[in-house]
TrEMBL record:
PANTHER family: DISULFIDE-BOND OXIDOREDUCTASE YFCG, GLUTATHIONE S-TRANSFERASE-RELATED. It comes from Pelomonas nitida. Gene3D superfamilies: 1.20.1050.10, Glutaredoxin (3.40.30.10). It holds the Pfam family GST_N. This is Glutathione S-transferase family protein. Residues 1-80 form the GST N-terminal domain. Residues 85-204 form the GST C-terminal domain. The lineage of its organism: Bacteria, Pseudomonadati, Pseudomonadota, Betaproteobacteria, Burkholderiales.
């Protein structure tokens, strides 16, 4: 299997961290800023969105990073990462979808302005930071309730995708609220295979 996308991408790193949890060696090819453009016809034929990453597994092509993570877990029958029981799986996927939609949208303006240098109105950045902290407070409450991982006692794909997001929040140049459950959870995650390489590597 081959993954197309540069390692600086948080979405590429979540797939690579999933692979590390599975003991799966993915071949990775650099695409994105500084490398080959995902707007090239060759890439657009694989992903018409022109975004990274893309997974190629033989003649099967897949895009959307959270979906790729689910595919890899299913391929390896990793039922702890992605349960087969309907309610347990729905709980994991609920938090994965929340990460991709709600949480990501909360930080987009602030992160792109403060880290990527895109122009934005100061009040829009301030509102985005407040919204980002509000969403992270929701995650903190969930972790305080479980006392371990996002969905309970077991590490799942919800922890993979949200772990990358939480690390981004922790490293961002913003005023952060104190979230002790998130801090304790990140310390637990730091002992997982691949964390140092794909999460705690200083990349935003």
């Amino acid at each position: 299997m081959k993954l197309l996308g540069r390692l600086a991408s948080i979405n590429v790193r979540k797939v690579m961290w999933t692979a590390a949890q599975l003991g799966l060696a993915l071949e990775r090819e650099d695409w994105g800023p500084g490398f080959r453009s995902p707007k090239e016809p060759e890439y657009l034929a694989l992903n018409p969105n022109g975004l990274i990453p893309v997974l190629i597994d033989g003649d099967f092509v897949l895009w959307e990073s959270n979906t790729i993570c689910r595919y890899l877990a299913t391929q390896r029958y990793a039922t702890t990462l992605l349960p087969t029981e309907a309610r347990s799986r729905a709980h994991v996927e609920q938090w994965m979808d929340w990460q991709a939609g709600e949480l990501n949208n909360s930080w987009r303006v602030a992160f792109m302005a403060l880290v990527r240098g895109q122009p934005a109105a100061p009040d829009a950045v301030e509102a985005s930071v407040a919204n980002w902290n509000r969403h992270m407070t929701m995650l903190d409450a969930q972790l305080a309730k479980t006392g371990a991982y996002v969905c309970g006692d077991t590490f799942t794909l919800a922890d993979v995708v949200l772990g990358l997001s939480a690390q981004r929040w922790q490293n961002a140049p913003i005023a952060r609220v104190e979230l002790p459950a998130v801090a304790a959870w990140l310390r637990r995650l730091s002992h997982r295979p691949g964390f140092a390489e794909y999460v705690g590597n200083g990349m935003p």
